[in-house]
Design goal:
- With 244 residues, the protein is mainly beta.
- The chain has a domain at 7-14 and 28-179.
- The chain is built from no helices and 14 strands.
- It has strands spanning 7-15, 18-19, 29-30, 34-43, 51-58, 82-91, 96-105, 127-138, 144-157, 165-177, 182-195, 198-212, 220-228, 237-238.
- Strands 1, 4, 5, 6, 7, 8, 9, 10, 11, 12, 13 and 14 form a 12-stranded mixed beta sheet that branches. Strands 2-3 form a two-stranded antiparallel ribbon.
- β6 and β7 (96-105) form a beta hairpin.
- The protein is globular.
- It starts with 6 loop residues before the first strand and ends in a 6-residue tail after the last strand.
Length: 244
């Protein structure tokens, strides 16, 4: 709904039941939960300023979605939302956007303002998660996007395989066109903090190169490489990179 220019109210409800092949006597259908998959208010160029914001349950994908894309990974394809407040400032003179995002996700999506309509107590993530993201996007270079970011995230374990942690992540990304047929992207990030009572120090990066064949079938040929640092069992330092 758009009650006024530049103001939108968004609502989306999701349900995904699943059939399973199981031995005789076992349950073969999971009713799952009915969730408010999106519930937010969005303002664009608020009061004539370069500020836009979205507050409430929303989808957030930053860059290629390498570190920030799915706030509910345990429910598979049904949902990917974050409970968040996202504020965006646009600096047109330098072709730059700056996002400041606060995230507050509950492990089963049961926040007081957007509880499940029917709850089977299924977990959406392994822990309660809170975090802050500062993300800058610059497009002043022709056919190029440059990103820099800082992410701070705190986890409080709810499931046995969850984390108790606080993690700082600094990273950067560049993506663009080498020609009308070649596209590239590269992103790297450094992490430090504490995870499950161990000091965290880690690094990861991802790259991709795409060739556009530009035939009648619109074929594309892609190559990708990704690296995550791993733990050193000889020390008390956790060096395994954590996809956020």
């Amino acid at each position: 709904m758009t009650p006024a220019k530049g103001i939108d109210f968004n609502l989306r409800i999701a349900w995904e039941g699943r059939h399973f092949s199981v031995p005789d006597g076992g349950p073969d259908f999971d009713h799952s939960a009915v969730l408010l998959d999106s519930l937010n208010v969005k303002a664009t160029n608020f009061l004539g300023t370069p500020l836009s914001f979205t507050v409430g349950r929303q989808d957030i994908v930053l860059g290629d979605g390498w570190l920030v894309s799915d706030g509910t990974p345990l429910d598979g394809t049904r949902d990917a939302f974050f409970d968040a407040a996202r504020f965006t400032l646009e600096f047109k003179e330098v072709q730059t956007l700056v996002d400041a995002i606060y995230i507050d996700d509950h492990y089963d999506g049961n926040r007081w303002w957007a509880p499940p309509l029917h709850n089977d107590h299924a977990a959406l993530i392994e822990q309660d998660e809170r975090g802050f993201i500062l993300y800058a996007t610059n497009r002043s270079v022709k056919n190029t996007e440059i990103n820099g970011y800082y992410i701070y995230k705190v986890n409080n374990r709810e499931l046995k395989n969850g984390d108790d942690s606080h993690i700082h992540t600094f990273g950067g990304r560049v993506a663009g066109d080498l020609s009308d047929r070649w596209k590239y992207r590269a992103e790297g990030a450094h992490q430090f903090g504490e995870r499950n009572d161990r000091y965290l120090r880690a690094f990861g990066f991802t790259t991709g190169l795409t060739y556009l064949v530009k035939d009648k079938w619109n074929h594309r040929i892609r190559g990708q490489y990704e690296f995550f640092s791993g733990d050193d069992p000889r020390t008390r330092t956790n060096e395994a990179f954590v996809p956020l």
